[in-house]
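RECORD TYPE: inverse folding
INPUT: structure tokens
STRUCTURE:
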């Protein structure tokens, strides 16, 4: 885990071009058709529920939406790939590795102002409720400023800093303080890598796709890959299809808003840069935004549990696990007009579709990926958006945006449509009647996960990142290594080890 600057991911020193999994799409979509498709994806909802919500996805607690954002910021920094209007693609200014450079920066030798005098402990008050900040502008002093983008990812960043410091404290207590920073960073990074593979991916990828690749990888090693193959060029950086489409699936999981504590629930965004009405970041964390109990966002349970907590009563401040919204071709309306500091009022759906359509990305269609993976592609009847009906929700084709989308579908939309298939199957089973809230909160409609194309892209990229990194746990951890957090490999276990739950 050593490096010349005592850290990884120094911005500006590892600039590399993105790679490509499949040949580029030879026929770009028109901006007008992508705008029309984006408009179909926005679901207007005026409620900000505290209780059971039909939009909830019982496979994925809400905290994983922002843990996923944290992972993204660890892997990629493309100056064109934020929420700003799409332009020509630049390069990745992050190492294509799960190395937590967003936490460690370039290490204590290059950035000593982030560390205590011992050169191992990250500089933060153990009891702090907010990140350390510059007095002049309130910006967080962290390895990646994007992890201050909203009040939830800010507190996940803080939790990871505290996790590192808890590991340092345990190593100090053992009496052996040799190579303290490197040993602590190895423990934290290896644990995090396993949490990404065994907890995060296990929740967002459907069981068949997850188990198929996991078992194939165990049997065949590098022979398990069909997309992110191991050669001198492919894993030099991340695939354009991953950063420009597939990993943007998490935007569909964003709730309209969240309850943070007994006093506060707010919209994720309200089209302004003020924290008064939303959870916008890039400024000191308001005391009212402090998460009072992480059980609102994470759970020690795995599998598909039943809903728990208080009855669905508006303004109920009791601690209840909030679930991410379903992975499907629907985005909440706050994402239709992003705040000025995040996206200058643009629609996030339109930005995502146009990103993958840029000449420098030219991401292949969902059908092209299905063919490569020997999967039956989704037909027009399965490429649909959810719309209000007379007595709930129904579904309609996307052909009003562009009939071409029925057979040549932007990869991002295709992946979300794959995750919606259990709901469409149920809708047809009940005669295509309008689906009510009761339909959505139980049975096959209560869970949505990535399917054979979206899930496979994620499984190959994340496993490929680990396989090709000589510092990763598969290649560098000593025989018999077990994480300090114990046998439960989950983000909940990290919070528990750190004393946050």
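DESIGNED SEQUENCE:
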């Amino acid at each position: 885990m050593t490096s010349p600057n005592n850290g990884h991911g120094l911005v500006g020193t590892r600039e590399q071009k993105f790679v490509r999994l499949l040949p580029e799409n030879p026929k770009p979509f028109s901006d007008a058709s992508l705008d029309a498709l984006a408009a179909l994806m926005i679901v207007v909802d005026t409620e900000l529920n505290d209780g059971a919500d039909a939009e909830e996805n019982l496979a994925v607690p809400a905290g994983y939406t922002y843990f996923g954002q944290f992972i993204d910021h660890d892997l990629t920094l493309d100056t064109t790939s934020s929420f700003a209007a799409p332009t020509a693609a630049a390069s990745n200014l992050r190492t294509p590795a799960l190395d937590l450079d967003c936490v460690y920066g370039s290490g204590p030798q290059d950035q000593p102002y982030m560390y205590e005098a011992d050169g191992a402990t990250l500089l933060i008050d153990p009891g702090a409720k907010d990140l350390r900040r510059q007095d002049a502008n309130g910006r967080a002093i962290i390895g990646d400023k994007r992890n201050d983008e909203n009040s939830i990812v800010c507190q996940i960043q803080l939790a990871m800093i505290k996790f590192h410091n808890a590991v340092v404290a345990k190593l100090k207590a053992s009496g052996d303080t040799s190579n303290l920073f490197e040993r602590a960073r190895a423990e934290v990074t290896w644990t995090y890598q396993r949490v990404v593979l065994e907890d995060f991916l296990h929740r967002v990828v459907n069981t068949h796709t997850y188990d198929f690749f996991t078992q194939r990888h165990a049997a065949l090693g590098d022979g398990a890959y069909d997309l992110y193959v191991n050669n001198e060029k492919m894993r030099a950086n991340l695939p354009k299809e991953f950063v420009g489409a597939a990993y943007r699936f998490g935007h569909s999981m964003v709730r309209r808003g969240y309850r943070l504590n007994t006093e506060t629930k707010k919209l994720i965004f309200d089209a302004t840069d003020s924290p008064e009405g939303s959870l916008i970041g890039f400024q000191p964390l308001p005391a009212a935004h402090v998460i009072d109990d992480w059980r609102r966002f994470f759970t020690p349970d795995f599998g598909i549990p039943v809903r728990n907590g208080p009855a669905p009563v508006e303004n109920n401040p009791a601690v209840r696990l909030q679930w991410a919204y379903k992975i499907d071709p629907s985005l909440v309306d706050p994402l239709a007009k992003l705040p000025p500091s995040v996206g200058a009022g643009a629609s996030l759906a339109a930005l995502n579709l146009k990103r993958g359509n840029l000449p420098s990305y030219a991401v292949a269609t969902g059908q092209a990926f299905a063919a490569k993976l020997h999967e039956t592609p989704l037909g027009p009847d399965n490429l649909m958006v959810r719309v209000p009906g007379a007595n709930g929700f129904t579904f309609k084709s996307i052909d009003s945006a562009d009939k071409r989308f029925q057979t040549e579908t932007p990869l991002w939309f295709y992946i979300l449509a794959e995750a919606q298939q259990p709901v469409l199957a149920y809708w047809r089973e009940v005669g295509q009647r309008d689906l009510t809230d009761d339909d959505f909160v139980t049975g096959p409609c209560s869970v949505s996960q990535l399917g054979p194309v979206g899930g496979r892209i994620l499984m190959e990229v994340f496993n490929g990142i680990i396989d090709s990194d000589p510092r990763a746990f598969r290649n560098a951890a000593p025989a018999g290594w077990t994480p300090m957090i114990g046998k439960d490999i989950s983000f909940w276990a990290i919070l528990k080890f750190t004393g946050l739950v």
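NOTES: The chain has one domain: 31-498.
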